[in-house]
Amino acid sequence: MTIFGPVIDVRPLFPRERRAMLDLLRALDPADWARPTVCPGWDVHDIAGHVLNDYMRRLSGSRDGYGGAVFGDGETLPTYLARTNEEFVRATRQLSPQLLIELLEHLGPRLDAVWAAHDPEAPAGLNVSWAAVDVDSPAWLDIGREYTEFWSHQQQVRDAVGRPGATEPELMAPVLDVFARALPYALRGHGRPEGTAAHLEVIGPAGGRWSAAWLGGRWRMATPGDEPAARVSMDQDTFWRLATRGITVEEARRRSEPSGDPEITAAMTTLLAVVAENGDSR
Prior knowledge:
This protein is of the alpha+beta class. The protein has two domains: 11-126 and 136-164, dinb family like domain (Four Helix Bundle (Hemerythrin (Met), subunit A), Up-down Bundle), CATH 1.20.120.450; 183-278, SCP2 sterol-binding domain (Nonspecific Lipid-transfer Protein, Chain A, 2-Layer Sandwich). Helices cover 49% and strands 11% of the residues. The chain has helices at 14-26, 44-63, 77-92, 97-116, 139-161, 169-180, 183-186, 236-243, 249-254, 262-268, 271-278, and strands at residues 197-203, 208-215, 218-222, 230-235, 257-260. A five-stranded mixed beta sheet has the order 3-2-1-4-5. A hairpin with a 4-residue loop joins β1 and β2. α2 crosses α3, α2 runs antiparallel to α5 (139-161) and α5 crosses α6. The chain is globular and about 55 Å long. The two termini are 31 Å apart.
């Protein structure tokens, strides 16, 4: 097993997640498309445009080998993503909701085919920086990251228009599982004696238990044992919202139950700020 833990194969779930998103978008009233979302400055229409950007960016890069926009002088990855995401969203404001839906419906299966052609355990097309920066990511983690991106944006739309859904365990549990793979990277600055373990428990129908252990000079995903040095428990709604900056770290801590090593529990409750800062979530 690598530092990232066991393989998560989300590829069969992309059509189901997309169908739920498209059904949601088709049901919206014109006023719903202008409702603000948790993403600063973006309304529902903008979120749909951003998801289209994700589809087109990965088709262009992963399928066609096209490099796309280049980094500006001195740009970090988060700055680059913020700039290019905003540029695309501004352009898609010229598109009708119907055309956005049609483009997502047309391009989605083509992206599914790209993922289906990947060997999940081969090197990733894009490394997952919130999981490790010194070890290449496997393809399954890269693909899983994309699934979390699409699912999370769907939830942001649902929140904005007051239409819950797509939270059944079959769709949501893999999202939480992928996010939990940020544990070793979140703990990287806190070396501990060999075998020290930290447990994360997410409560709810889609939740689960994950563990990271200090083994061989670094934190790695591990099988949960009986006596961790630190433990954090939170509900599944808190967990995914922390991952995507839907709530602050302070709010997540108020909604969590930590025990044990305070430095470790503090790091665990910031782990998914790592996702938002270094990934593609706005």
